[in-house]
Amino acid sequence: MPLYEHVLMARQDISAQQAEAMIEQYKGVITANGGSVVKTEVWGLKSLAYRIKKNRKAHYALLALDAPAPAVAEMERQMRINEDVLRFITVKVEAHEEGPSAMMQKRDRDERRGERRRDRGGRRGDEFGGFDAEDAE
What we know:
Layout: E1 3-11, H1 16-32, E2 36-52, E3 55-66, H2 69-81, E4 85-93, H3 102-119
Antiparallel strand pairs: 1-3, 1-4, 2-3
Helix pairs in contact: 1-2
């Protein structure tokens, strides 16, 4: 069967649980039509570059699919009907990426960067002899 990568954007007004439920619904459409979902990544709530249907943010998700074309077409048809889905795109690929996608790698890198900043002591003045709570005693 052909391999696809599908990215969908859902409205910011829905909760994360509702977005997860929507993803599960579309995964069910793929499996019911003879395909399989190889990988699912929920990228979370991200800012949009421009407003789409009065939304400034959207819930993003990536689905790596191994499915026949009619299954993908049915899933896309249902997404067009659903008003919570802002945009989606399906791309046919030769092979699925192993490991996390570029978006998930970026999130991991950003989280590690934040941890390093906290390990250094927080405020900038602290490392150059700034005022500490211990000095007040």
